[in-house]
Amino acid sequence: MNTQTIPPLAPDAPVVLEMSNISKSFGAVTALVDVSIKLRRGEVLALVGDNGAGKSTLIKILSGFHQPDTGTIVSQGKEVRFASPRDARAQGIETVYQDLALIGDLSVFHNMFLGREYHKRILGLNLLDNRKMREQAQLYLDTLGISIPSVNSTVDLLSGGQRQCIAVARSIYSSPRILVLDEPLAALGVRESAHVLGLIQNLRQQRQVSVILIVHNYNQIFEVCDRINFLHSGEVALDASTADTSEEELIRIVKSGLGRKAIDAAAAEVRPGIV
Amino acid sequence: MPPIAIAKAGKGAVGVKVPQTMTERLLILLSRYREASIAVVAIVLVVYFQVGSDGGFLSPQFMSVVLRDTGRLGLIAAAEVMLMITGEIDLSLSAIFSIAPYVMALMSVTWAVPLAVGAVVGVLIGVLVGAINGIITVRFRVPSLITTVGMLFFLQGIVVSIYNSQPIVAPVEQPFNAIFGQSLYQPSDALLSWHGVTAFTPFLWAVLIVLALALALNRTTFGLHTIATGSNIIGAREIGVRTDRMKIYNFMIAGGCAAFAGIINTAQFTSADPQAGSPFLTLQAIAAAVIGGTSLLGGSGTVIGALIGAFVVASLNNGLVMIGAQATVSDVYLGAAIIAAMILSIQVDRLRTRRRL
Ligand SMILES: Nc1ncnc2c1ncn2[C@@H]1O[C@H](COP(=O)(O)OP(=O)(O)OP(=O)(O)O)[C@@H](O)[C@H]1O
Ligand SMILES: [Mg+2]
User: Fold this and answer.
1) Residues A232, A260 contacting (CB under 8 angstroms)
2) How far, in Å, from the CA of A236 to the mean position of ligand 1?
3) CATH class for domain A34-103+175-270?
């Protein structure tokens, strides 16, 4: 993966998604306070933060799984309200959740097409076209270079890494506009991570799909991301481009564990103009 | 970038354990074909009773009794399977089994409503009760075990109070009774006569509905989403499956099946008894579902297995008496069968998890 071959994002790339002033609490737990993020066409945005910072909650609001207490989502210039993940998927927003959202008792190919099954009519009945789904799943996994014992095996018989690959493949299959990946590399081996990062790099090269990527490994962030948003205690504490931030700086800021204001001040002191 | 192979498919690399012992191989076979084990049990039972009764067990006359019971139990067992797959259960089905035909018979004797119309009303009542059970369960997050026990008492209370708990003699209307159930097979009937067929209609209806449910479960989006709901409810919701609706739909199907079973029962006995379905009927149906190979953990189950399970239960109930055992002894066998089936089912489940890496 050669970072040099990827030209920087054009400064005039249109904004495809804007989440503004999103707040969310679960009973007494405040998960997000006034979070705003912006995503441009073809951009790969890294979302980082401590455990429990609210990253997954934010992307689950984007995917329609949670509804925000306050705040708005603007997608393609229009305000949208996702009542369920179906709505978000219909808008071309695909999500790989941290828990993968795979159904253990169903086969790989049924998982790949869950929620967008192929049908065929037999005697007036709308039945599943299992053969087509099986073939398409096999074909698609082959093109992505993901190999598993069989698309017929149930998902709970696969290894953690294989499951993660299936979840990633499922999310890319429908050529989404916006791809959200919540720790997609967590269970992957070195070669497998490199492979998935390669897929993201591919998308980035074409600059058509916008990606939100949650990862804890900063090496990987600097390898494939254009911009970083650091989420701290439910707030965005840092918004910086990978081009003018170094890995050391990022690690220092994240480690400091400070709120937004303190980080702003600290960042301005060390290197004016990051924020 | 050319695609790189992620993990070379090899037995060692992919974490699928190669079966070692005979028992393990057998368990894997059972986990794949859950109906297989109960089918074997059913065949063994038939042979045992057939020998023990000097050939009386498989006579058309006796079979019409066993299959009538199989049909009644099988419909309710299949209904429970649909719910158990979504991770729920319905203990009010016996009360629906009583109230639906009771309403049908009452409408017939008081307002002269045709039985066919009353039957439709009865099934709709079952579906409606199912919808209420489902809505209470998913919207108010009351465990279905509790919701449906409440519904059981509620409906049972209504059905005994509307007509002073009197059984109603239901009229015989043709072709309604010929289609949905008539008196049993008589020794004088020829097997290929019209009566030879109508004596088995309750069972044939159960087979038809079970096949329809099997088709829905295995070949439709509805079935896929039903399994997804029970297997991983959060994951299913995250990917956009309407899990609440799936549960409610299955409660409705279960209520409809129980109502239909009750109507067939009444058509056959030409009497609507407010106590026709005792809670024991539901428990026997759940037993049939479990020994038929449906997991209590949700996410998998087989309606065909449930029908075969119902046949085993009905054979035990009738066969033991036939070969001269005390009527009460059949419960001993049934109890043992349930426990054995549970042990087997949990072994199979554990095997599946063990093979998981
Ligand atoms: N469904 C829920 N009910 C109650 N609290 C929740 C729920 N989901 C998240 N939270 C809380 O919200 C906070 C943010 O959680 P979130 O999962 O978004 O963190 P995260 O940044 O993704 O962490 P991690 O890196 O560990 O995945 C946590 O305090 C968590 O306990
Ligand atoms: Mg998370």
Assistant:
1) yes
2) 15
3) alpha beta
